[in-house]
Give the backbone structure.
Amino acid sequence: MPNSAGKRFKPTKYIPVSTAATLLVGSTTLFFVFTCPWLAKVISPAVPFYNGLVFLFVLANFSMATFMDPGVYPRANEDEDKDDDFRAPLYKNVEIKGIQVRMKWCATCHFYRPPRCSHCSVCDNCVEDFDHHCPWVNNCIGRRNYRYFFLFLLSLSAHMVGVFSFGLIFVLHHREMLGALHTTVTLVVMCVAGLFFIPVMGLTGFHMVLVARGRTTNEQVTGKFRGGVNPFTKGCCGNVEYVLCSPLAPSPVVILLCFLCRYVLDPKKKPHIKIQPPFIRPDTSERHITIKVSDNGIHGTIIHSKSKCSLDGLDGKEMQPPLPPKADKYSQLKAPQTSSEESSLSGRTHPSTPAMYRYRPSFGTMPKVHYHTAEEKIIMSEDRKTSAILEEGVRGHDYRSEPNLDLPEYANAPLHRTFQSSPFQLDSDPVASRTLSLKQGPCRLEKGQLQALGPQTAASTSYKGAFSPNTLSNRNGSLSYDSLLNPSISPAGANECRAHRGMPPMGFHSPYLPNKMCHIRETEIHRQQAAPAYSPVVIPRGMGRQSPHPRDRDSSPVRYDNLSQTIMASIQERKELEEREKRKMMHGRSQTSIYTPDSAAFDGGYGLPTNACYPEGPRGSFSRGPTPPTYGGSRDNLMGLGVMSYGQRTPVQRYAGSTLGRAPRTSSTSLHTDHSSTNSSQNRTPGPEGPYCSPVHQPHSPAMPRSPSYSHQKLSYINTHEKTESPRLGGQREAVKVNGQMDCHMSTQNASLSPGRHSNVKKVTGVGGTTYEISV
Amino acid sequence: MAETHSLQDLRHQAAVAAKVFIQRDYTNGTLCQFQTKFPSELETKIDKQQFEETMRTLNNLYAEAEKLGSQSYVEGCLACLTAYTIFLCIETHYEKVLKKIAKYIQEQNDKVYAPRGLLLTDPLERGLRVIEITIFEDRSLTQ
């Protein structure tokens, strides 16, 4: 036997098929030669004719079953599986007629096996509608050749019955001449037929039952639908009809060969498609318009449809922070959500911890853009009109950075949809926020992030789908969350911040905090002029800001957030207490350092200097972690963290979220990575943290002036939150935070504040640069 | 020949930026249907309606290919009677529809997708598992 370098020739696998073929053909030939002449003469010539037909049918089906492609799936291209390979979960669920069916990742073929598909180890291929590997035909039985296999069994059974009975007749008529050749041969044929009759009939009966039930041998043997419902059945008649009468599905391999032959023979037939830039781009102007409508009021005008390019100018000019409006937009835009978004979202996002979820919502409403925002958008807009998309992508990042919290937000789905429909909305926000951040300086990180993100726009776009809904969900989450936690909780805080405009973002606490903080801050600043047109949900909260809301919120039923409501509430309370204590302690100091939720300095700013520097590590790890955050974990984290540094809420949350792990691969991973990178970059930019790791930015100072007006509001807000998120805002923040008192200590108080905090708390940088304060 | 450029040659004119894979939609069982949701990567490239229209048409064509109608019955009987030798002579209904699909994809590529820097790949090449959409780099933007 020649052994080629490639596949080795295994003769043993051909033994069963050879045996079967030999027996079949040999026996039948003998029957026709020795028995049929007498039968034709004595009984009727129709006998051999009938037997001949049946035998022909058996042979045809046998050949088809042996040589026909059962429905082999070609191996997946590298491009297809690159996202899935490393971080792909082993199973993927899909719903078929209401029943959850699991699709397993095939490591050999590099794709998720479609339902009913299985990998044949003998053939080393994934086969569609895999039934079994039949050694007698030396082939897999799958979708394309099951009919032939079944008909082969039926016809073989009929043939065996016929041969045996006619042979019996012959033998009975030649009892006295048993020693004669003809009789002996007939007897031998009868023995062979009789010997294989039981197994073949048994198998035929088995497959008749399978066909009637609409199952494959693989499913029957592995007990997949034992006691359950088979989603693939079409009823008995439908199943039989499907097996026997369904059109012959062509083999992809054969088709490809045909195509190749055709094109090789006649190259002119080959379709030629010219793909040359410049390419047409969809008109996004309408979308922009919708964005404008949005609500924040602050940036109503920011989003200009055509001028994504105008975003370029954002750097120079002041853009209203698009933050809050987004929330409104979402509520306004109840466009039917694209399934893609949903799915992308669901696909990519991972179940978020409730805690994270809560926090996130506040950010969700805000334009995610924090990091990527403006800059990213600006870049994007140049190329595409759909800056909105970018935004989404950006959002995605935001979203991603936090452990995905959106999953549970089914309720938010509609929001997601709306979001999707108006991608531009996002654009505006990010851009707006970006400009703000740029101006303020503190958000240097953002810039860096943006740039980093820039190249990823493509990637971000992919996330967009995932994110936008998330953002929405965040919003929703925040809403719900807010209701739970109330102002004290960051989500509420976030909303309130917006509402109050000057409120320090501290309350956000959401994982997006860094970004959001920036946005919030910026928004706040801008907001001063513009009346926040937040969604009604937000506004009321904002008003309440303080404790009353949290209480109210706690009682409000939250969809997903409900779970941790009580937890959040307790955290809130604890935080408030702590904050109060701290405020008293640090009243004179620049508390803002701790609290200023400078988005850019998010990482560094909040926590202790050590933390600022350190978050990077954990953050990065968190964000990149492929395991999805578990709810329980997040809550726990929150609990712990909440106690510590309320102000840090967002950071805490982020931490919590991140610890939970990230959803496996794909979108989330990339997003997280982006996020982490942005966060990290944020961290790196010393900016606001100033006191902690790096010199404090005071870039916010210019923005600060406004803060006083907000600070009051914020302060009240802060009380609940206690988050002092980023001291970046400088004095503004300081005032805001901590104690709810309207101290508007500009700038540098951060440093003073933080040290005080250090004594009590340890700042940890979480995902997205959120700094968490952990009381030690 | 200026007008006959092979796909390969044309591809050289624009670099591949990304690939989007439209997966199968199994909500109705193992019928060959593809998801119609609009992937986010294409948001900047093509209109959602256009894309969904393409996908819906493809789904309808595949449903037509797999339909258990009179034509499939006749083909099945003939095949049995002729010991499947008829497959050597005639084209089955499924194959005919597959050709129709290939033509449709070609036409869509020419009219809709190529001008936008996209290319649809016939799912048959992937075993009817995914529709691969290749996104080409828009060099005009980078210039």
The beta strands of chain A are 72-73, 91-96, 99-106, 111-112, 118-120, 125-127, 132-134, 139-141, 761-765, 771-775. The two ends of chain A are 75 Å apart (CA to CA).
